[in-house]
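Today's session is about reading a structure prediction critically. Students often jump straight to the picture, but the first step is always the sequence itself: look for stretches that repeat, for charged clusters, for runs of hydrophobic residues. Only then move on to the predicted structure, which in these notes is written as discrete structure tokens rather than atom positions. Here is the chain we will use throughout the hour.
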Amino acid sequence: MPDEKTYQLALTLVPGLGDISIKNLISYVGSAQRVFAMPPGKLAKVPGIGKKTAGNIKNFDIAVAEDLYKRLQNDNIRLLFYTDPDYSLRLKNIYDAPALLFVQGKMDLNHPRMLAVVGTRRATTHGKAFVRQFISDLAGMDVAIVSGLAYGIDIAAHKAALENNLPTIGVMASGPDIIYPQLHSKYARQMLKRGGLLTEYPPGTQLDPARFPARNRIVAGLCDATLVVESAAKGGAMITAQLASGYNREVFAVPGRWHDELSAGCNMLIKNNTAQAIISAADLCYYMQWENPEIASEAQPVKHYSQEEFSQEEWTVISTIEATGSEIHIDELSWKSQIQISKLAGILLNLEFKGIVNALPGKKYSLN
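Below is the predicted structure for this chain, in token form.
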């Protein structure tokens, strides 16, 4: 009989089901296996599903997912569903996080310090040298370097991390079996030994330019901060920086001369107060307070309340709302906290009585 992992994989293969719909289903139903066991009429009533998608779920051939899961296991590709303990806590806190990741290597997605390094594919000699020196200076800080495996600044960052024995993670816009560009395959293999590769796309998914912005949201969402080294006024690095800013993550940029095309994007981010200007690893560590090893990373809940005063589930709800940084809808709170809607309503009511949680219009909640 198929296990839960197979059913989780199957959900991502059902036509019409996106990441948010999958999370809603798990929140309301409890598990992927129970989703496929439910009558279509009940499935259709889950927010965002409807009759057509419910029919697609009931008509899906689970054997397709079974065959694919066996192939993934044979190729040493792990599945990380958003409810798995090893799934990135930072990534989980973005609304459009992937429901499922295909992972290769020995990466820790909850590494204490994670930095995205991005920039142009047409990197200059100066830009690549800056990346090499910058990451070399981070060697003693045990920072995981995240990028997109592309030409230019991306691969310079991965190579520098490898040279300095830092974990490095490549986020791909294709299936796990398709390395792009192929020229970087040798570096990708090295990254598997300490770090790895991940994607939200199943094997066989070909590269498509439309998938790059989606890939960039994962790069930004995985990290505490994003560093833009060289970028024109428009491009993937600028998209990643804007996404990181929207996720309330720190953004840094290396300033350049006003007339240089590949400094235009960095200078614009600084001018618009989207990014803080930095010129060294020491600057980054100062702003991130990484000089103090006791400072908690963003992956840890901010303890404005004392955990001892609450049950484990109450504390999960509190830390989830706190990590969001603002009001949160009950559906989103459910899939982020991994507590079913039916149970979550009672916990929220109890926290409201204690004066910890505010119930807002539209089924939203915030902390006092």
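Discussion point for the tutorial: The radius of gyration is 21 Å.
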